[in-house]
Specification:
It is a single chain. With 477 residues, the protein is an alpha/beta fold. The chain folds into 2 domains: 270 residues, Aldehyde Dehydrogenase, Chain A, domain 1 (3-Layer(aba) Sandwich), CATH 3.40.605; 183 residues, Aldehyde Dehydrogenase, Chain A, domain 2, CATH 3.40.309. Helices cover 41% and strands 25% of the residues. The strands form 7 sheets. Strands 15-18-19-14-13-21-22 form a 7-stranded mixed beta sheet, with helices on both faces. Helix 8 links the parallel strand 11 and strand 12. The longest helix is centred in the N-terminal third of the chain and has 23 residues. It is globular. 54% of the residues are buried.
């Protein structure tokens, strides 16, 4: 079987390899992917540093053309790349193709941003002096991505990093290297100069730690667990390095008595269970007022009974497998914790056997939960959702905000008053009204508050805040 190698200084570099296993069919090896070393990582950092002076001064048309070519190829290969994503991560094929299309759109957007780079020319308060305010590329960017969005998250970090003239050392999650390898291959063939983009696959304790230890990495953008994010922050402060963190969430969806029941159920099911609940924006806390609580639980349970859990590549599958055995154990452990805490298991919670061996788990719904239970406080990152009964809107808002996280929040209501108040008073970075909490556009800012995020927002024109440094220049006329 072919070994998919690391990409360093414009060359595919040999290394020991690990198996990439299909969670829908554990008998299938998706491919063998390089397991990078400390030396590989140091070489990649050195290559990026050497390439930075020329690339940072490259023309905007050159960057535009490369990013546009990459976006066009991703779109042209959306079915192939979507299938690859579904096989290595377990997301259903339609979801995987949709994510691939989003990656293409991100590259298309930043291809345009390369042509929209702008600054300001303003007068000084002193006579005969002009002031120019511009943005310079940051330097060598370390990119560390998670396993739950194997092509979209790499795209929304790689595209702006390259657009604004930075060079990159990229470490994808160990579980999902295939899509990352494919996207780097596409960018290489689109015309990136040697050393501008470097891919080192492998373990976080080796590749990621070497990136953190290097004074030559000028900025690190990280998406992943809260614990690892704190280590990224600590190491970056030591080097006076700019860093950007996207971490955990325990996102609430409030359902008020006046909500449209169909809209509320569809939004809750999508938010909590699609993509196997493995989204940082998933709603794992459903905060429901008394008047609609019983009807909502009954309707949501009926909805869950219709959802098909099966092979991600199989037509008609609504929910694919959990990504791997470790995550499956985390999910089942939390299900047992919920039972012991006194929550009522209203639906699911059982392992499932299918035609192909995989990590299949029924969507799991708890009722009679409280906001103090561990299943309501800690991010599970699986298809496990708790319903919390509250008296009224005021208690619902207080409960929604009573969390150390603040990524996404939603409300289902037909009241303009409550929708407007919730948008203003929700302590989350993104707020949805009568929509799933998961699912955001590619051209607008993404990010949260409190323990969910740190640093400038990702995506859209706001990405420039992280990937560039502002320069102010004065000239005597």
């Amino acid at each position: 079987m072919t070994i998919y190698q690391n990409f360093i200084a414009g060359e595919w570099v040999g290394s020991d390899a690990t198996k990439n296993i299909n969670p829908s069919d554990t008998n299938e090896v998706v491919g063998l992917y390089a397991d990078g070393t400390v030396e590989d990582t140091k070489n990649a950092i050195a290559a990026a540093k050497a390439a930075f002076p020329a690339w940072s001064r490259s023309g905007i048309w050159e960057r535009h053309v490369i990013l546009k070519k990459a976006g066009d190829e991703i779109m042209a290969r959306k079915d192939e790349l979507g299938a690859l994503l579904a096989r290595e991560e377990g997301k259903t094929l339609p979801e995987a193709i949709g994510e691939t299309i989003r990656a293409s759109q991100i590259f298309e957007f930043f291809a345009g941003e390369a042509l929209r780079l702008a600054g300001e020319v303003i007068p000084s308060v002193r006579p005969n002096i002009g002031v120019e305010i511009t943005r310079d590329p940051l330097g060598v960017i370390g990119i560390i991505t998670p396993w739950n969005f194997p092509i979209a998250i790499p795209a929304w970090k790689l595209a702006p990093a390259l657009c604004y003239g930075n060079t990159v050392v990229f470490k994808p999650a160990e579980l999902v290297p295939a899509c990352s390898w494919a996207i780097v291959d596409i960018l290489n063939r689109a015309g990136l100069p040697k050393g501008v983009l470097n891919l080192v696959m492998g373990r976080g304790s080796v590749v990621g730690q070497t990136m953190l230890d290097s004074p030559d990495v000028t900025g690190i953008t990280f998406t992943g667990s809260t614990g690892t994010g704190r280590r990224v922050a600590s190491a970056s402060i030591e080097h006076n390095r700019k860093f950007q963190l996207e971490m955990g969430g325990k996102n609430p969806m409030v359902v008020l008595d006046d909500a449209d029941l169909t809209v509320a159920v569809e939004a809750a099911a999508n938010s909590g269970f699609f993509s196997t609940g493995q989204r940082c924006t998933a709603s794992s806390r459903l905060i429901v007022t008394e008047g609609i609580h019983d009807k909502f639980v009954a309707a949501l349970t009926a909805k869950l009974e219709t959802l098909v859990v099966d092979n991600a590549m199989k037509s008609g599958t609504h929910i694919g497998p959990v990504v791997d055995e470790k995550q499956l154990k985390t999910d089942t452990d939390y299900i047992e914790i919920g039972k012991k805490e006194g929550a009522k298991l209203a639906f699911g919670g059982e392992l499932i056997s299918r035609e192909t061996p995989g990590f299949y788990l029924q969507p799991t719904l708890f009722t009679e939960a409280t906001n103090q239970m561990r299943i309501s406080r800690e991010e599970i990152f699986g298809p496990v959702v708790s319903v919390i009964r509250v008296k009224d809107y005021e208690e619902a808002l207080a409960t929604a905000n009573d969390t150390p996280f603040g990524l996404s929040a939603g409300i289902a209501t037909t009241s303009l008053k409550h929708a407007t108040h919730f948008k203003r008073n929700s302590e989350a970075g993104m707020v949805m009204v009568n929509l799933p909490t998961a699912g955001v556009d590619f051209h607008v800012p993404f990010g949260g508050r409190k323990g969910s995020s740190y640093g400038p927002r990702e995506q859209g024109k706001y990405a420039a805040e992280f990937y560039t440094s502002v320069k102010t220049a004065y000239t005597l006329a």
